[in-house]
Every structure is written in structure tokens, then in C-alpha cells.
């Protein structure tokens, strides 16, 4: 699922059929539709928030594991 999520956040979006083939081994079609819709919604929400400069409100402060920013990637 993480490989699918990574592919869905790229511009342009390109999720290889091989990714869905692997997912079909674990999930039914209805589950894949729901998972993909959830990923798409979260991607939309994140991009919307970034466009308007919406920052975290601190509700989960201390309750997450932030990943380091990779060199050469700008937010």
C-alpha cells in the first residue's frame, strides 16, 4: 500500500499495474477502491492545505514520528 501511496503522490500520477497486482493478492476490489479513494482524499487535502499555507494546529504534538527531509526536496 505504501508503494501505491508513493506513486499516487507523484506528479504526474502513475501507479504501475504491477503495484495493483500485488495489492490484489491481499485485498478485494472493493477494498482497493476504498483504500485508493482514501489515499486520493488525503493527497488532495495535503495539497489544498499547502496551497493556502495551512499549518498543523498542534493537536498531535509529540504523538508522531516525523521523517527527516531528504536533501534536495523542497516543501
What distance separates the N and C termini?
23 Å
| Rg (CA only) | 15 Å
| Low-confidence runs of at least 5 consecutive residues | none
Q: Based on CA inertia axes, which overall geometry fits?
A: globular
Query: How would you sum up the major sheet?
Result: none
Task: Outline the structure in words.
There is one protein chain. By secondary structure, the chain is mainly α. 52% of the residues lie in helices and 0% in strands. The protein contains three helices and no strands. The protein has helices at 2-9, 17-24, 29-51. The longest helix is centred in the middle third of the chain and has 23 residues, at 29-51. It is globular, with a radius of gyration of 15 Å. The model has no long low-confidence stretch (mean pLDDT 86).
Jot down its keywords.
52% helix, single chain, mainly alpha
List the helices and strands and how they pair.
Elements: H1 2-9, H2 17-24, H3 29-51
